[in-house]
Amino acid sequence: MFQSPRPQFTYLGHSTIRCDLPSGEVVLIDPWVDQNPSCPDHLKTFDRIDAMLITHGHGDHMGDVVSLAQKYKPKTVIATYEICHWLSSKGVENCSGMNPGGSQHALGLRVSQVQAVHTSSIEDGDRMIYGGLATGFVVRLPGGYTFYHAGDTALFSDMQLIADLYRPILAFLPIGDHFTMDPHQAAIACKFLEVRQVIPIHWGTFPALTGTPQDFEQSLENLGVNCEVITLQPGEVF
Ligand code: NI
Ligand code: MN
Which of 22, 92, 131, 192 could covalently link to 57 via disulfide, CB atoms 3.0 to 4.6 Å apart? Predict the structure, then answer.
């Protein structure tokens, strides 16, 4: 079967995904590496970062965006309008703020921002700054390959709309519980999204995140959802 070109995905632990595009460019989703207890040391530095996508303002999703932007000078940093406003005030260049429902082109990709059911605030010293809505991203490559990174989210039935609108083949879904969906809800998400493959994220980093890939696979089986689970340990590549 013909496979359109897709990125090579490296799991840096928690929700952080490094995408090496067929062009050789590097996209980092939810940049949290230095303080990320799951991120292997040898993956905390990069040869290049061409774009960063940030799903929401929490520290475990954008804790390193300012330092990485200074070091690697990405061509674009994509997040909500509010997060981009804050990042710009911290000296991050090339921010391109947006809001759910919209799409923009970056590095030849079509980046669509979609809703998430979660909060989004930025801790700046002892202040909590409004970060706009929490979001996820659907990314389509020039050849058509499309994937979805859900960020942090509860289950919501409009994931069916994401399936209708964007037809992702692969999803990165949180399964850890406490702050996001648990494995059972994530299995229902796979049904709504009609994805062929899923990579579990946001699990195992802290004791509060109790959902496991094993429970997730069991939930998919119980529901009769035909979706391949690709479990990556931090540092592993798909
Ligand atoms: Ni969060
Ligand atoms: Mn989180």
Answer: 131
What pLDDT does residue 1 have?
54
**How remote is the CA of residue 73 from the centroid of ligand 2, in Å?**
25
> Which chain residues have CB less than 5 Å from ligand 1, an ion?
58, 152
The residues, any chain, with a CB within 8 Å of residue 231's CB and separated by 6 or more, are 199, 200, 213
Cα–Cα dist 216/211, whole Å = 8
The ligand that comes nearest to the alpha carbon of residue 176 is 2
Q: Decide if pLDDT at 2 tops 80.
A: no
Q: What totals of helices (H) and strands (E) does the chain contain, helices first?
A: 6, 15
Where are the chain's structural domains? 8-229
Radius of gyration of the chain (CA): 16
3 C-alpha to center of ligand 1: Å?
Answer: 33
Confidence of residue 4 (pLDDT cuts 50, 70, 90): confident
128-150 tens-digit pLDDT: 999 999 999 999 999 999 999 99
